[in-house]
Amino acid sequence: MNPHLTRRHFFGRTATGLGIAALAELLQGKERTPTGGLPGLPHFAPKAKRVIYLFQSGGPSQMELFDYKPRLKDFQGGDLPESVRQGQRLTGMSATQSSFPIVPSAFAFARHGKSGAWVSELLPHTARIADQLTFVKSVHTEAINHDPAVTFLQTGSQIAGRPSMGSWLAYGLGAETQDLPAFVVMISPGKGGGGQPLYDRLWGSGFLPTRYQGVKFRSVGDPVLYLSNPHGFDSEDRRVYLNALGELNRMKLEQFGDPEISTRISQYEMAFRMQSSVPELTDLSKEPRGVFDLYGEDARTPGTFAANCLLARRLAERGVRFIQLYHRDWDHHGKLPAELPKRCKDTDQASAALIQDLKQRGMLDDTLVIWGGEFGRTVYCQGRLTKDDYGRDHHPRCFTMWLAGGGMKPGITMGETDDFCYNIVRDPVHVFDMQATILHCLGIDHTRLTYKYMGRYFRLTDVHGNLVKDILA
After folding, report:
1. In 3-state terms, what secondary structure has residue 220?
2. Which long-range contacts (CB under 8 A, 24 or more apart) does 436-439 make?
């Protein structure tokens, strides 16, 4: 009997006993059909097998892109009525303004497709696939500043430390492949060079075992850190090294029962497999010319949003469960007429191409694609309003997201805001509602995917969330 074996370690050992046998099989290199996940999941037949989340970090302006408000021209330059604002708290960037002048969009809108969806002239490629998309114009959140708002969308809490959505899915559903992580993250900068910081905890596993955290792919050097062997150390050497290291780690696992040791072993093995799978994944040389015509020439440049969208399709083909793309620099407090078109140019063609590419390959039906930021923008101008320039502050009360593919009803628009695009007047959709609906598409009852931590059962949607049934196919 180990005199240092605590109650926690004892139960940890008994809980991981079965896992050690499976782990030994993995270390011997025996392939098996990878499933993982929790027993009984999915809870019901899923429409989607995987998610590609195109997160537009900074808060894209809904009034310039999707939520057409022609009556704003009648109110141009006038002060936002207090009856509309209703005492809403403001950020420190505009709270001290003596007036809140209303400013309509500088860009034209038109209806597109059989659905007649309104889309801005800034998004011509998105407009062409409008009938494939499900627009939700009534999303609202509780956070008014970037970091808590992004954290809320990604983890279900404004306070850091909870597992990200991708981690919840990796934990609940497991992986479709042993050769790549279940959860992959890529970041592209806006060509303006700015944007809010994006912290690794946004794709972290929180209190879940760290094996479920997202793996960040880089655009410079090795796509994943420490993937290459040191000089003079070949694959055979690494295999021998990992076998020995795995044996030592299994001894520690048997002694202490710490699940993080199990994670360490599995991640070493994953890294070994990725030495073969990742170079093949990121080699775009065999992609035909037509693919680059579809995604745009930016897709040839590593680290761009277009290149990441193309890699997202390739990851989805290879069984990655959750693929998170972040594109930065949508935070337009000023110079919006000059800067917003640049972000749209960065992302419009590639976003639409991803939908078209998935559909052509027969993958859209079981791939859920999500597009959106952390909140919207105010109808009033932040700072000085001039004839040619304006900016907009953060606005959590309403913003637009679109979804496509697995489980969604295409060609519809849900939700409505008032004439000032300030308050929701029909079919509000809270962040928790959106998260619950995303999980539903993957066959998960959001109230039943839980994890006990510090005596409490946690879930992505906390104690909230209702299915948005009207957008489900």
Report:
1. coil
2. 436/461, 436/465, 436/466, 436/467, 436/468, 437/467, 437/468, 437/471, 437/472, 438/51, 438/165, 438/368, 438/370, 439/168, 439/169
**Domain CATH code at residue 397:** 3.40.720
Residue 436 falls inside a structural domain: yes
Place of tokens 């062409």: 128
Residue 79 phi, psi dihedral angles, 5° rounding: -80, 135
In a domain, 18, yes or no: no
How far from the centroid of its chain's Cα atoms is residue 219's Cα?
Answer: 18
**Tokens at 202, concatenated:** 């946004």
User: DSSP letter string over 111-155?
Assistant: EETTTTEEEETT-HHHHHTGGG-EEEEEEE-S--SHHHHHHHHHH
Rg (the chain; Cα; Å): 24
* Structure token digits, residue 319: 């069984």
* 314-to-17, 168, 281, 434 alpha-carbon distances in Å: 36, 22, 7, 26
- Total tally of structural domains belonging to the chain: 1
From first to last of the 473 residues of the chain, give the pLDDT tens digit. 444 344 444 444 444 443 444 444 444 444 435 568 999 999 999 999 999 999 999 999 999 999 999 999 999 999 999 999 998 889 999 999 999 999 999 999 999 999 999 999 999 999 999 999 999 999 999 999 999 999 999 999 999 999 999 999 999 999 999 899 999 999 999 877 678 899 999 999 999 999 999 999 988 877 887 677 777 778 787 777 777 887 888 888 888 888 788 877 777 777 767 788 888 999 999 999 999 999 999 999 999 999 999 999 999 999 999 999 999 999 999 999 999 999 999 999 999 999 999 999 999 999 999 999 999 999 999 999 999 999 999 999 999 999 999 999 999 999 999 999 999 999 999 999 999 999 999 999 999 999 999 999 999 999 999 999 999 99
> Does the residue 340 lie in any domain?
yes
Angle at 22 between CA 17 and CA 23, to 5 degrees: 90
429: containing domain: 38-223+301-471
pTM: 0.89
Residue at 255 is within a domain: no
Cβ atoms < 10 Å from Cβ of 30: 8
